[in-house]
Structure formats: structure tokens, C-alpha cells
Amino acid sequence: MRDPPPTLPERPRERGYVVAGHAIAVARAAPGLHVVATPIGNLGDITLRALAVLAGVDLIACEDTRVTRKLLDRYGIETPLTPYHDHNAATARPKLLRRLAEGAAIALVSDAGTPLVSDPGFKLVREARDAGHAVTALPGASASLAALAIAGLPTDQFFFGGFLPPKQEARRARIAELARIPATLVLYETGPRVAAALEDLAAGLGSREAALCRELTKLHEEVRRGDLAELAKSCAQGEVRGEIVLVVGPPPAQARPADADVDSLLRRALARVSLKDAVGEVALATGLPRRELYQRALVLAERQNGVDEKDGTPP
Questions:
Q1: Residue 210's closest CA among 234, 180, 242?
Q2: From its phi and psi, is residue 163 left (phi > 0), alpha (psi between -120 and 50) or beta?
Q3: Within 13 Å of residue 96, how many CA atoms lie on the same side as its CB?
Q4: Residues sharing a CB contact under 8 Å with residue 315, sequence separation 6 or more, in sequence order
Q5: What DSSP designation does 113 have?
Q6: Each residue of 143-159: pLDDT tens digit?
Q7: pTM score of the predicted model
Q8: Would you say 42 and 144 are in contact if contact means Cβ atoms under 8 Å apart?
Q9: CA distances for 257 relative to 60, 251, 283, angstroms
């Protein structure tokens, strides 16, 4: 009986990438989880550091392997891919953590932009850190920051609200919460829902300035500016396609409320919730500093308990 032919050892993967026809070899990436930002449209918006890590890791965890494969093919990267998304995270995450425990270097990417910004990954990062693995961020493209940069609206304070709820009742309730935030709002939306979302935003926030940023960095990039009602009307007149970021200006500055009105709000809140929650509720409603409200709430709480702070006698 003849012996079976000897098995040849598997040829190690060549780690490297190609830019403008030049092949660049890289070393194996350091063990741990590497959170890598990828382009939001234009595949040229990738950093050299990101390319080196994507080529140097042992495995890339991505939302859709087909999407990430297009990026890797563009730069001649042969790193294996594995899916990691909302639907398989519960089973995929322990496997990735096991590989990290064995000393693997793993990159986490989303389909576009920075992972964990409206994309899966939070639990993986947290559990990797809890297990003592190194977690490294490789910053880069982000649709929210790109939209802020070109919207022409205040950027000193902004609040990222992600996607609004798809159903109108929940969407309007969420918009009512956002109305109290004294900052520029950044929201993600889809083409089929954007007209309805803008209509509800106009109803809930009033005539605020806004920008609709569509297909950022792609061939058909478009930015529409106007107040919310104007943008809602524009979108209602025809189909809007593509990935959309809505940037909504902050509410107009409000005059400081009278002390008597602030005390009234605090009393009503203290009758329902704890002192801490009452302060938070009134701070959100008035925009006043929490420290100032906390001191006022302490005085009111003591008086409501029957002790006058000034002379210690019942009020």
C-alpha cells in the first residue's frame, strides 16, 4: 500500500497593500482589537495607517463582507473577512473574543464610516476591554462630521441623534425630546422617510435653519439648505434617494427665566421625582447650570420638609 503524498505547509499570507500601482509590505499588526474607520463613499478617503492595519491584522470583522471586499480589492488586501452585525453578534462575538484571547489581531469595520456610530460594535469593544485586550482606534471618515463641516451651521456644540424612529408617533415623541437640546442636531435618515421626518421636525422644532446632506463624498453628492419647512416641501415634491444626514440648527437663545418661575418648576419636579432627577429635568427645560439649580433645589426641599433655612423655624 502506497503512502499518501506529503501535505505541503500552507503558504503564509503576504501582508501588504497596493496604492497607485506600488505594492507596500507591512508587518503583522499588534494583537488586539483595531477599530478602523473606512470611507463613507469615495474609496480614496482611507488613511495609510488604516490600510496598513487592514493588511496586517489576522481577521477583519465587518457588517457585510461584500461591501468590505470592494474596499480590500481596491487596495490589493487579502486579509480574511468574517461577518459581524446586529443579527449574528450574539454568536459571533464570543468567537472573536476567543481569537483575541489566543493573541490574534482583529480589525472591526462598518460598511461605511466610523464603527459604533449607528453601527454595531459597542458590546464587542466593551467586552474586549473588560477581558484586558488592547483596543485601538484608527480615526477617519464620518458622515456626521462631514455633514457638520459643510452645513454652515454652528459647530461649537452639537448632538448626534442617530436615526429617528420610523413610526410617526414615536418619531414625534423623540423630536419633542430633541427640541430642548441647546445645540446643533445631527440626524441620519433614509431617502424614503426623509420627507415625513422633515415634516415632523418642522412641526416639532419650528423654523430652524437646516441642511440636508445627501450621498456625501459620492458622485451625486448634494447639499440642500433652508429652514425645516422649506426642506420638507422640497423633499415632498419628488423621490429622494441615497444616504442622508440632516443637520438642524440650535434653538434660538432664550431669555433667562425669572427666579420665581424656576422655583415653581423645581417645586413641581420635587413633588414627583428625586432631587437629582428634578435638577436634571429643570436644567433640560431651562438651560440653567445644574450646580445653580442644585443649590436652589436643596433650599426648596428643606422648606418643603418643614424647616426654614434662615432661622430653623417652620415656614
A1: 234
A2: beta
A3: 32
A4: 303, 306, 308
A5: B
A6: 999 999 999 999 999 99
A7: 0.77
A8: no
A9: 53, 16, 12
